[in-house]
Design brief:
This protein folds into 8 domains: about 15-160, no CATH class; about 175-300, no CATH class; about 305-400, no CATH class; about 410-490, Immunoglobulin-like (Sandwich), CATH 2.60.40; about 495-570, Immunoglobulin-like (Sandwich), CATH 2.60.40.10; about 585-670, no CATH class; about 680-770, Sandwich (Immunoglobulin-like), CATH 2.60.40; about 775-870, Immunoglobulin-like (Sandwich). It is about 30% helix and about 30% strand. It has 22 helices and 42 strands. Strands 5, 6, 8, 9 and 10 form a 5-stranded antiparallel β-sheet that branches. Strands 13, 14, 16, 17 and 18 form a 5-stranded antiparallel β-sheet that branches. A 5-stranded antiparallel β-sheet has the order 22-27-26-21-23. α13 crosses α14 (about 295-305) and α17 runs antiparallel to α18 (about 375-385).
Length: about 850
């Protein structure tokens, strides 16, 4: 009750007091007003008699009102507090109103502060949405000790809407909604309206209080049929299958509006489970889901106020505990704990957990502060932070706890660099890192006393200066005392030392370090005169000479210090002599092998290389061996009489080079064409033709085939007829067919061929001799009376000859004999002259049979008479 409002008028005092004082106090959580003017209905000025009378009247009203159960708790609290306030009223009754006036002034300030706190809590509860539920207004009013009406007025002034959250479906109207949701995600649809209407939505939609979208869009079965027809016109694929899943849900008995509302609410609930804030939920509803702004506010408000672990004070406590912000959770629990009323069970459990974890963490923090062992203190603080992630001061103190120092460090000079190594720190608590610092002249004292290095290797240390290196173990922001190694002095050797051999001389050159005073060169214990950057001296050829090149530095006292030095060797020699002439011929027994003959050079080692193109260097030119190696292919050679044997394997330019040390002398070259001869040549006479077959040489496109008659005296072939045969023709015909005389021996030769530089080149040939075969014709005649039949064999040929062996074979039946072993031999003759005749008795065989002659002679081919002559039928 405001100070200027006291029960007055014709209304009975008790009724007015209950309405204006007790009822607002009961609504504020049975919390009496701090302002004693309102509590005791005091009027100004504070006269002693009036104050005493009003207090007695108010207390009588309390006793009468205590009979009503709803006021009993409030009256008990008023009576308990009155015992503390009685001395103030007693002093006022004695004529000293100052203690009561001081208390009244303080109460007004407390009431004002309480109102400000309640309005701040109201703004926190409203959040980004600027909405609160009536129950939240009531809870804030009860815990804040302000009337609910006053708080509702503050909400209206601040533009905060007080309303009940809209009821959202908690269960899916369609049992298989999860499958529908997956299909919508696969199709790239935001929600069911997006699937139904697509681009026709053309603006925000409303899903609360019925569906509403762009003009002309209606959420009914007509829209479902239209969407189904549109999908039916598409070709069948996986997307149409997913569309069928969504259409099945829309065509089911589930109400369309309920299905759409649950679809949108479920997506918001999913984002809330992902810990999205109010602003993020609102942006998701408006920007991503396309919901109208006011509808989106109501939807988000309803989702946030749903009963569950994410709502109310319990939800906030649980969220803070899950995030590890236990200190903030304990502070929130203490700040929001209602006076005189126990919180709900879940809130009480969460608050107790937050307080317990905070108390345990505080004890751990205090123990760690007093702990002298830094590692143990670090572990205690780590345990405290695991319990309370936001424990004040714990993380800062832990970052300032140094680890144990590195036990030992050592340094090694690696050329012009220094490598630092160390034993790890014994500390096992936390993540221990290491920092290396370098200082010239003295040891570093801490991480700032020297030049820090990025790693264990100092790539560019100062030269000719005593250096100290410190290794510090680091944990968080604290570093242990350094482990020092040194001093070490870096004195680089001369760099890029190179010795060049000449004809009777050696030239040396190098890069002298800038800090070095000079460079000394020693060969075989004798100093070699030279300058700062090189030397030249005359030496004998053919011997290997060893040099030691060292740098000389001046120490702090001016004395010379000589480095161990760089060793190098060189063998001088006369320049190589070129090979002026080459003779190349293929080996008769192995055509792939070449014999290369030349006069050996006066100096150097001769070798053969193969180039794909003519050599770019003139003959006798002296060039580096590396240049020859880059442009040619070195061939494996074997020593032979007067030169080398080599197998090039492919065509190109065969070049002779003479090598001595790193120099090559260019010699003569020879154009080598790789035309290997065919292998396994076979030639068979088939009547008036010879069939030729062989293994076709690799990488050859054509061969040249020749046929030459062989003199019967064996003196050799006469003139040959030659023809070119391609690989395609050979493969198509299954070989080569050549016409030849039947009665003359011939020699067939085959050689690989090709065109090089516009002229035809033929490789080595292989040959095969085909002997002549003379055709001998025979006839079998039967003669004589039946009781003395005889057979006569008449032989004829173009020229007289003798058949080595001739046999007459009889085979019974109707099948002709094809070999001498196919039947019975009636007669056999050796060295049978042709022309001539042979006679023998006729066989006494009965039934049909065959008679046929067979010759065993390499140069004779028998020609059978007509079949009617050979077949005998009885």
């Amino acid at each position: 009750m405001p100070p200027d409002r006291v029960p007055s008028g014709d209304e009975p005092f008790d009724e007015r007091y209950r309405r204006e004082v007790l009822e607002p106090a009961r609504e504020a959580g049975d919390r009496p007003p701090d302002d004693l003017r309102a509590r005791y209905a005091l009027a100004e000025p504070l006269a002693a008699d009036a104050v005493a009378a009003r207090v007695r009247e108010v207390r009588r009203c309390w006793r009468r009102s205590r009979g009503q159960l709803k006021y009993r708790r409030l009256i008990d609290r008023l009576e308990a507090e009155h015992r503390e306030l009685a001395p103030l009223f007693a002093a006022a009754e004695r004529g000293d109103p100052r203690p009561l006036a001081d208390r009244l002034r303080g109460a007004a300030e407390r009431d004002a502060r309480r109102g400000r706190e309640a309005r701040a809590r109201l703004a926190d509860a409203a959040g980004t949405l600027r909405m609160v539920a009536p129950a939240e207004i009531e809870a804030i009013a009860r815990t804040g000790g302000v009337p609910r009406a006053e708080l509702e007025g503050a909400a209206r002034v601040a533009g905060i809407a007080v309303r009940e959250p809209d009821a959202l479906p908690s269960a899916a109207p369609y049992p298989a909604y999860r499958k529908v949701r997956e299909s919508l995600d696969v199709l790239g649809k935001r929600h069911l309206p997006d699937f139904l209407f697509g681009e026709r939505l053309a603006g925000p939609i409303r899903v609360l209080d019925g569906f509403a979208g762009a003009p002309g869009l209606r959420l009914d079965q007509d829209a479902v049929r239209a969407a189904g027809e549109a999908w039916a016109r598409r070709s069948r694929d996986t997307s149409t299958a997913h569309a069928g899943t969504v259409l099945a849900a829309l065509r089911s008995d589930a109400p369309l509006h309920g299905l759409v509302l649950y679809d949108v609410a479920d997506r918001l609930r999913e984002r809330l489970r992902q810990r999205a804030s109010e602003g993020a939920l609102l942006r998701y509803a408006t920007a991503d889901l396309g919901v109208e702004a006011e509808d989106a506010r109501r939807l988000v408000f309803a989702v946030l106020r749903e009963t569950g672990r994410d709502g109310g004070l319990a939800g906030r406590l649980r969220a803070l505990l899950d995030a590890g912000e236990v200190f903030a959770a304990a502070e929130l629990a203490d700040a929001r704990a209602p006076e005189g009323e126990a919180p709900d069970e879940e809130t009480e459990v969460l608050a107790a957990e937050a307080r317990y974890r905070l108390d345990t963490a505080l004890r751990l923090r205090e123990t760690a502060v007093a702990e002298p062992d830094a590692d143990r203190a670090w572990l205690l603080l780590a345990d405290a932070l695991r319990l309370v992630g936001d424990l004040p001061g714990a993380a800062e103190h832990r970052r300032r706890l140094p680890p144990l120092p590195v036990p030992a460090a050592r340094v090694d000079v690696d050329g012009a660099a220094v490598r630092v190594s160390w034993e790890p720190s014994p500390s096992t608590a936390g993540e221990v890192g290491y920092q290396v610092v370098r200082r010239a002249g003295r040891a570093p004292r801490d991480a700032r006393d020297g030049e820090p290095l990025t790693g264990p290797r100092d790539a560019a240390p100062p030269v000719n200066v005593p250096l100290y290196y410190g290794v510090l173990a680091v944990r968080g922001e604290a570093a242990a005392a350094p482990a020092v190694a040194g001093p070490v002095v870096v004195r680089p050797e001369p760099g890029e030392v190179e010795l060049l051999a000449g004809d009777g001389q050696v030239t040396g050159r190098w890069r002298c370090p800038a800090e070095a005073a000079r460079v000394v060169v020693v060969r075989e214990g004798r100093a070699v005169p030279g300058g700062r950057d090189g030397f030249r001296e005359h030496v004998p050829n053919g011997r290997t000479h060893h040099y030691l090149v060292s740098a000389v530095y001046l120490d702090a006292s001016g004395r010379e210090v000589v480095t161990p030095g760089v060793r190098a060797s060189v063998t001088p020699s006369a320049p190589p002599g070129p090979v002026y002439e080459l003779e190349v011929e293929p080996d008769a027994s192995d055509p792939g092998l070449l014999r290369v003959r030349f006069d050996p050079p006066a100096h150097g080692r001769a070798e053969l290389v193969l180039a794909a193109a003519p050599p770019p260097w003139p003959r006798s030119a002296l060039i580096p061996v590396e240049e020859v190696r880059r442009a040619t292919r070195r061939l494996a050679c074997a020593p032979a009489a007067g030169g080398l044997e080599v197998r090039p394997g492919s065509g190109g330019w065969l070049l002779a080079v003479t090598v001595a040390e790193g120099t090559a002398a260019i010699g003569a070259c020879h154009r080598h064409v790789n035309l290997p001869p065919p292998r396994r040549l076979v030639a068979e006479r088939r009547g008036a033709h010879v069939h030729v077959g062989f293994d076709w040489p690799p990488d050859v496109a054509e061969v040249e085939v020749g046929v030459a008659a062989v003199d019967r005296t064996g003196s050799g072939p006469g003139g040959a007829d030659r023809a070119v045969v391609t690989r395609a023709s050979y493969d198509t015909q299954g070989g080569i067919r050549l016409p030849v005389p039947e009665d003359e021996p011939v020699e067939v030769s085959v050689a690989a061929s090709g065109t090089v530089g516009g002229s035809r080149v033929v490789g080595p040939a292989v040959a095969a001799r085909v002997e002549a075969r003379t055709v001998v014709r025979y006839d079998v005649r039967r003669s004589g009376p039946p009781w003395r039949r005889s057979l006569t064999i008449r032989l004829t040929s173009p020229r007289p000859l003798r058949v080595a062996r001739l046999a007459l074979v009889l085979r019974a039946g109707r099948v002709m004999p094809h070999r001498a072993a196919d039947g019975e031999t009636l007669g056999a003759w050796e060295q049978v002259p042709v022309p001539g005749e042979l006679s023998l008795p006729a066989p006494a065989a009965s039934g049909p049979y065959w008679l046929r002659c067979f010759a065993e002679d390499d140069v004779v081919e028998l020609s059978d008479p007509p079949v009617r002559t050979l077949q005998v039928a009885r």
